[in-house]
Amino acid sequence: MNRTGEDTEHTAPDLSLVLVSWNVWDHVRACLDELEAHSRATGEATVRALPSTEAGQPTLTFEVVLVDAASGDATPDLVPVRFPWVRFLPQRDNTGFSRGNNIGWRAARSGSVFLVNPDTLVNPAALRELHRALWSRPDIGLVGPRLVRSNGELQPSRRRFPQRLTGFWESTWLGRAWPENPWARRYHCRQWPDDFRQEVDWLEGAALMVRRDVLEGVDGFDERLFMYSEETDLCLRIREAGWRIQYCPEAEIIHHGGVSSDQVPAQTHIIFNTSKVLYYRKHFGVLWAELLRRFLLCEFALQLGLEFAKLLVGHRVALRRDRLHSYWRVLGTGLRPTG
């Protein structure tokens, strides 16, 4: 293998893990340390193996493809030195989640691709269970684990596809005012317990194992969705192609969450809501997308007014100024998708 990450070997591993990083070296190191600690080297420089833990259990071989989106931290310098077994693909710009993952899975060699965030801790049992679930039936195209936060708290990840009103009642003031509204309940699959294997519409993108031919069939992520809503769109196209998507709680993975987006709160608001509008335009049409866009702008205008009022009375001044700056930037964009 050369230093650009291009493969010069011929034997494909059983599984390819694809990670996209942006200024999260501490999490990248912890994630790769965890994988390294529970695996061993093989005869190929970029392939490692999970040893068998039960009689008759086959060894599972894997590679890691790490796409770095022009990080300014230690990631580009230290990954090749500390983890020479990783296929490292540094980029010249911030690719975003969708394009970064597309670069990664297209470079991967296995028929099983695990799209996993670097702020996760992946244990061998979860990898084996997901791989087994993915190939347990010929019509399963994508599977995902139970996600928990570092404190052990469940991070809900099962979803149904949004309906036209969902965008107005989920992750908005209306949703926070009426959290048990029917659109949010349906969207978050609250009618079903989360402790048994089940078919779902889509799963959050922190950890998704998918067949490579499924990704090829739908042409991967829509790169207009820089980050957020991209996994919803991907899963919708996978379902429309006739594949099933399965939630597998037997596989449990720790996910810290938000470590890249928390670095740029204003930009996160912009990208999250613009992606939401783009998803609506793509799947519900221009009229519904425009209604949602105007609703979201009104919501940010109201929040801007509220934060200004709190600033005037001297309540947590530094926080109010930060939020005013963020909300003003959001309003300045008009939340107009560029794609």
Quickly describe the structure.
The chain has 339 residues and is α/β, with parallel strands linked by helices. Helices cover 42% and strands 19% of the residues.
Write a concise keyword list for the protein shown above.
339 residues, alpha/beta, 2 domains, 12 helices
Assign the CATH topology of the largest domain: Spore Coat Polysaccharide Biosynthesis Protein SpsA, Chain A
Radius of gyration: 21 Å
The proportion of residues forming helix, as a percent range, comes to 40-55%
Q: What fraction strand? A: 15-25%
Count of DSSP E strands?
Answer: 14
Q: What's the structural blueprint in terms of helices and strands?
A:
Blueprint: E1 15-21, H1 25-37, E2 40-41, E3 48-50, E4 60-68, H2 75-82, E5 87-90, H3 96-107, E6 112-116, E7 120-121, H4 124-134, E8 140-148, E9 154-155, E10 158-159, H5 166-169, H6 173-177, H7 182-187, E11 198-199, E12 202-203, E13 207-211, H8 212-218, H9 230-240, E14 244-255, H10 265-284, H11 286-312, H12 317-333
Parallel strand pairs: 1-4, 1-6, 4-5, 8-14
Antiparallel strand pairs: 2-3, 3-4, 6-13, 7-14, 8-9, 8-13, 10-12, 11-14
Helix pairs in contact: 10-11, 10-12, 11-12
Model description:
- With 339 residues, the chain is α/β, with parallel strands linked by helices.
- It folds into 2 domains: 206 residues, Alpha-Beta Complex (Spore Coat Polysaccharide Biosynthesis Protein SpsA, Chain A), CATH 3.90.550; 70 residues.
- Helix content is 42%, strand content 19%.
- Strands 1, 2, 3, 4, 5, 6, 7, 8, 9, 11, 13 and 14 form a 12-stranded mixed sheet that branches. Strands 10-12 form a two-stranded antiparallel sheet.
- Strand 8 and strand 9 form a beta hairpin.
- Helix 10 packs parallel to helix 12 and helix 11 runs antiparallel to helix 12.
- The radius of gyration is 21 Å and the shape is globular.
- The relative contact order is 0.12.
